[in-house]
Amino acid sequence: MMFYSNEVFVLSHGKDHASKLQGSTPRDELLIRTSDSFSGLLLFAIGFLLFMVAFVKDREFHSFFARGCVLLHVAMAIWRIYFERKVEDLGRDWLRLVVGDIVLGLSWVFFLVYSWREKYD
């Protein structure tokens, strides 16, 4: 995503908003590119963490991890509701992203319910 960020922004937001999301000054562009780099590093770290958790056999740890993921998705939805919707260039997408965060959080809740059902059957 970092290498084709302009194309991704044009595809998702349109040409007008894509130019605004790239930054208007060189300092803004540098900050945005640095932020994109850190998001890519974070995505890699999360993927690596999920890969490591997949090999853990302890059900209690899986429940702990799933609860943490639910809290993370709820926090992200709250962030989008209170802050991201106020950014005028991202204002039309916040509702779709909040629904996506809630659905992802619910998927972890369903995992917890399923694991509790297995535990208490």
TrEMBL record:
Residues in coiled coil: none
Pfam families noted in UniProt: DUF7865 (PF25266)
Transmembrane segments: 38-57, 64-82, 94-116
Keywords: Membrane, Transmembrane, Transmembrane helix
InterPro entries: DUF7865 (IPR057187)
Residue intervals of the DUF7865 domain: 1-109
PANTHER family the UniProt entry points to: TRANSMEMBRANE PROTEIN
Identification of the protein by name: DUF7865 domain-containing protein
